[in-house]
UniProtKB/TrEMBL annotation, chains A, B:
This is AB hydrolase-1 domain-containing protein. Residues 64-305 form the AB hydrolase-1 domain. The active site is at S129, D284, H313. It holds the Pfam family Abhydrolase_1. It comes from the Bacteria. InterPro entries: AB_hydrolase_1, AB_hydrolase_fold, HAT_MetX-like. It comes from Mesorhizobium hungaricum. Gene3D superfamilies: alpha/beta hydrolase. GO terms for molecular function: acyltransferase activity, transferring groups other than amino-acyl groups.
Length: 338, 338
């Protein structure tokens, strides 16, 4: 019994030209949609994460309380549950899975929210990392529908440095000849492990490692144990083509790269009417706070509220850092009360 | 005609147990040793660099003026000129080349300086990156011999985060099955290119990429052109086993990991009598200034003098950033005058 539902999007025409026939959007909901349909929160997933990986922020006693809100977690295309290289039938399977943008993802989510649930307003869109990318997209694509956004540890556009970081991740995965341009039968294990090791230096900050939080906070027995158990263990179960699909989505993320804004990034930022709490981590190595400051400066109704944390990108991570979760939960409460 | 000389070290017993028989130290000198032998500067090489890659800091009108100083550039073991996997005869060739520490490198350099040139005092030891690691070693291993040190964009001990960054570089290179555990005939081209792409995100800062200095200052035609031409072009000509040898040296760099200090890092720092200008780059992603501050705080005669630069690790790079070269050259002048 899966713990999620599937919404059939029909033949979904993607921004870059392909059609995902009988496209699937996997999602999970929490709480009940009220009669006025005004208690809806959308919480998109992050790179390689699935809905279950968002649940740490939801619960009784948390701001995202299902007793109060109707919370929808839509799974990103390529994450193995929504349409992905790993679950799409021929001929668009595996390495032929088409290029999907964040714009495509959010259009699909909009279809779910409006057609399936008849919802016209969103109280909040919130997301971590690539979830933040989708959150920004919601704000820019549907400015009259989205009342609040809380993108954390992410950006509205993939920066050039972030792009390069991802080039390294991709190059490590695809250097393994077992990858075979995506036509593998057995998974490219060396490539997945290499990708994990590349990611390890980026995910947490220099100070995190200096303070040995991999041992003292996360309980690993050695640095190598952290690299094998946490990092390799994280990526090994995932499908390489899925990972590459989402990586492409990430690298090409840009709220202005569509017919609405035609590449005018500042115009797209200005169009976001939602009240926005933009929350980078002070020590995030691939979403540095400077990029968030630029975004906030160009949005009409936004606040810059960084995590003062040494946890790097994982300040906003999947519930990994208790103090940062507390900070985030408090800011979400403040935002929803406003 | 090579532009360098070879010093035969004889049978050189390494710290980790192997003996490099008929070990070679390649070096180049600039200027003349004066009668008092008190005008000597040692300038070790960096990761994968060779003596020619240090010459940007030497010349008429520069602080390191051959008219005034006798400058010795010793090549690091593993860099392809001194004893390396690529030039050592069987049986210690290729993948069997032994583990060499920075301590071993500096002992070999000390042998050259004292036996070949009869030098008893060094006016200055200076180096970038792994050259800084060797510079710190000089200060800690020969405190009565070294009057000044100027390690820039480097550290006295490989930090845990820096170690993880290098794990990613190594994993990318060795994910290529053409690497074949070091027993390749043809070079592992995919691995070398992957390693280069991983390195690209680390070498320069987020701000460097944000300001498009790869295009505007370094003259590349696109970001991809920078990745291929600058980064892949840099690593492709190098031997994979050589790169892995130096990477091991780097990961295991620690001025206290020897019989003098028995792992007591603070004790080793305290022992450095030399007047030290420790110069990290403010935006260096793998040698962050915080590590230098710790070193300076524990050295008796050291100053913390960061490059206020967006060039990341390449602030101290091979002459790449003119303003930073100017800053460095000025500080070296100040240090030598004191």
């Amino acid at each position: 019994m899966p713990d999620y539902e599937i919404y059939s999007l029909g033949d979904f025409v993607l921004q870059r030209g392909a059609t995902l026939r009988d496209a699937k959007l996997a999602y999970k909901t929490f709480g009940k949609l009220n009669a006025k349909k005004d208690n809806v929160i959308v919480f998109p997933t992050w790179y390689s994460g699935q809905h279950v990986d968002n649940e740490w922020l939801i619960g009784k006693g948390m701001t995202l309380d299902p007793a109060k809100y109707f919370i929808i977690i839509p799974n990103m295309f390529g994450n193995g549950l929504s349409s992905s290289p790993s679950n799409t039938p021929e001929p668009y399977n595996k390495s032929r899975f088409p290029q999907v943008t964040a714009y495509d993802n959010v259009r699909a989510q909009h279809q779910l929210v409006t057609e399936k649930f008849g919802v016209k307003k969103l109280k909040l869109v919130v997301g971590w990392s690539m979830g933040a990318l989708q959150t920004f997209h919601w704000g820019a694509m549907y400015p009259d529908m989205v009342e609040r956004i809380a993108p954390f540890c992410g950006s509205a556009k993939c920066s050039r440095h972030n792009f390069v970081f991802l080039e390294g991740v991709k190059a490590a995965l695809t250097a393994d000849s077992a990858w075979n341009n995506g036509w593998y039968d057995d998974k490219p294990e060396k490539g997945l492990r290499a990708m994990a090791r590349v990611y390890a230096g980026w995910g947490f900050s220099q100070a995190f490692y200096r303070q040995e939080l991999d041992l003292k906070a996360l309980g690993h027995s050695s640095l190598e144990d952290f690299l094998v158990s946490f990092w390799e263990g994280f990526f090994l179960p995932k499908d390489a083509n899925n990972l590459l699909t989402m990586l492409w989505t990430w690298q090409n993320g840009d709220i202005s790269d569509n017919e609405l804004y035609k590449g005018d990034f500042k115009k797209a930022l200005k169009a976001v009417k939602a009240k926005a709490f933009v929350m980078p981590s002070r020590t995030d190595l691939y979403f540095p706070p400077e990029d968030s400051e630029f975004e906030v400066a160009n949005m009409p109704n936004a606040k810059f509220l960084p995590f003062e944390s040494v946890w790097g990108h994982f300040a906003g991570g999947p519930g990994t850092s208790p103090n940062d979760v507390k900070f985030l939960d408090g800011k979400l409460k403040e935002l929803l009360a406003s």
